[in-house]
Amino acid sequence: MDQPERTAAIEYLRRKGTEAPVSKLLAGLRSTFRTFEQTIERVPEAVRPRRPGATEWSVHEIVDHLVETHRPAVLELRALCAGRAPDGGPIPARLRSANPFDRPWAGLVADLKDIHAKVVDLVAEAGDTAPVAAKAPFVMVVKGHGPGAAEVIEWVEALDWKAYAQALRLHTHEHCAQVERTVAAFHADH
Fold first, then answer.
1. At what angle do helices 59-81 and 22-41 cross, to 10 degrees?
2. What b-and-e string marks burial along 83-92, b requiring 16 or more CB atoms within 10 Å of the CB?
3. What is the CATH architecture assignment of 4-188?
4. Domain locations in the chain?
5. pLDDT tens digits, residue range 114-152?
6. Stated pTM of the model
């Protein structure tokens, strides 16, 4: 697979992750996490469980997805920051809890904020001296250009802890945009 989108993504994670000073990583993580949290706080309660289309996720499901994927990512990031490759394969790209709507919104948001704080703390504690030799498999998902239409390109990439942290930031950023599109779809109905 030699797509330009894949090459660009790997290069971005190298420059903005692996080679970046921890201060830049922390600033990006804090900003993106804060933006996501503020964005979901503004979502009207009636909109949170609604799906804009049959195959699309509601805002509630998007938040559940971030909790379910980033919770194990904290464990993997902790291992990487300690110089160890985590056990097991990559976290599935579309992971959600079995019944996302069984979890109350306030608890879901509190869990996400706690996970965000743990990611920031791990990166801060690792600092610029933590080695980047250990790697973990990470499912990369990017939008690409297929014949006549956009397509999703997905692969597993081995990432060091700094690139991994940057990938978590990008994952959150992408889902923030998804939340905004979801909310906008319902405002367009009115």
1. 160
2. eeebeeebbe
3. Up-down Bundle (1.20)
4. 4-188
5. 999 999 999 999 999 999 999 999 999 988 776 777 788
6. 0.94
